[in-house]
């Protein structure tokens, strides 16, 4: 209880100080937190119970953004994981592709947005492809790295038991690559949020970035701050989700390893 | 530095180059045969020719210079702020627990989402660019400093304390040197983030916020849009990130010679 109190005290004190300061100063740029929270509630969470209290605006802008992130990440995880395993298991393929993949990762994805717009036109399809492209490299390279180095004892054991290629993949290679895969996924989750906001700021007819643009052009600071806080909450939620998935799958993995030993 | 059992450096380089060349040729062939429409993606040769042209284009070089200026300023300020903060959070557990919620709330806010807000508050220009870079570059340096302090050998710390040294001396002679390679890794992460952020800011606000690679790409993208030019600039942006990373690795080796092993591993 005291630990909980200690953790929240500073946040609440900071918010309180901001509140008082903003009210005294009547600051245009920094509206008081209470006003931001009230606006967030009215904008997004004052909807009917049948819609899980989401307003029209939340359904029209928040859900598409979340959907794009999840779709982009799902594609990146599926392709990046599969290709990563293949690349990591063959020294030759790794040798041929490593510099190319390293450069693809070094290429700032934001510079390629115009190319994605040229290929897919504006819209959800373009945004999902852009997010998938931008987030695939950490997953692919990390998975390849994980699949490259197998425990020699396990390799010998698997050989002794004459497992089929499929069994080798399921029992040995995937479990070995999984921790690295998640290390890549963790990086990609925060990247996906950045790319979503960026793509929607540049050209979109809905989504959180689009709403930010509207708030900025109407010079409505409370609205702009509300979108920012919502993005922060979304980022926190995505991190929590990723950690939960990682924890579940790696717990299984640790269990399997202990069992296998 | 080649290790036994691995293919030699020459063979590795040859494979890497072959892979790169194969990709470029494949893309060129797909374009020339019309499998990938030239209206959508330009030919590899066109993009490479554009990239070579850019290397001698004074306007583009001025934009690269402006991006480098914002990068250097932003990174320097971020390090100057984040390392002391990391030292405080890393050596005073009470402060770390108390501020954890604030830090955990602030960290996932992408700097890209701050572009419009900072633009309104500070107005477009170098100050806005640098502020955004500082916010984004702060976190990897801060967290790596804390990890580094957590990783410090407790025996070394206790030894110094047993000789009557105070906390500042322990930090100066044990914790900081031991955390230095972690901090260096954090700075390299922050460096690539700084470049990406500067390009994003320039792309979204355009020339109004000053020169930079982002503004160059925004220009190339206006009107009919020049995909070849955008791709050429993107290639240079990638090369810039790699070169800056190499420079930082080199600096790390020069400045932290006692951590050669770490430096080799972190590459």
State the helix count of chain A: 10
- CATH first level of chain B: Mainly Alpha
Number of strands of chain A: 0
At CATH level 2, the architecture of chain B is Orthogonal Bundle
Helix/strand-derived category of chain B reads mainly alpha
Description of the structure:
Chain A has 261 residues and is mainly α. Helix content of chain A is 83%, strand content 0%. Chain A has helices at residues 2-25, 33-44, 56-89, 91-106, 113-120, 124-148, 152-160, 165-202, 208-217, 221-260. The longest helix of chain A has 40 residues, at 221-260. Chain B is an all-alpha fold. Chain B has one domain (57-266): MetI-like (MetI-like fold). Chain B has helices at residues 9-32, 44-54, 58-91, 93-106, 115-122, 126-150, 154-162, 167-205, 213-221, 227-255, 260-266. The longest helix of chain B has 39 residues, at 167-205. Chain B is globular. At the A-B interface, helix 1, helix 4, helix 5, helix 8 and helix 9 of A face helix 1, helix 4, helix 5, helix 8 and helix 9 of B.
Provide a short characterization of the protein structure.
By secondary structure, chain A is mainly alpha-helical. Chain A has helices at about 1-25, 35-45, 55-90, 90-105, 115-120, 125-150, 150-160, 165-200, 210-215, 220-260.
What is this structure's SSE topology?
The complex is a heterodimer of chains A (261) and B (267).
Chain A (H helix, E strand, L loop, with lengths): L1 H24 L7 H12 L11 H34 L1 H16 L6 H8 L3 H25 L3 H9 L4 H38 L5 H10 L3 H40 L1
Helix pairs in contact in A: 2-10, 3-4, 3-6, 3-8, 3-9, 4-6, 5-6, 6-8, 8-9, 8-10, 9-10
Chain B lengths: L8 H24 L11 H11 L3 H34 L1 H14 L8 H8 L3 H25 L3 H9 L4 H39 L7 H9 L5 H29 L4 H7 L1
Helix pairs in contact in B: 2-10, 3-4, 3-6, 3-8, 3-9, 5-6, 6-8, 7-8, 8-9, 8-10, 9-10
Short descriptors:
heterodimer, A: 261 residues, mainly alpha, MetI-like fold, B: mainly alpha, globular, disordered N terminus
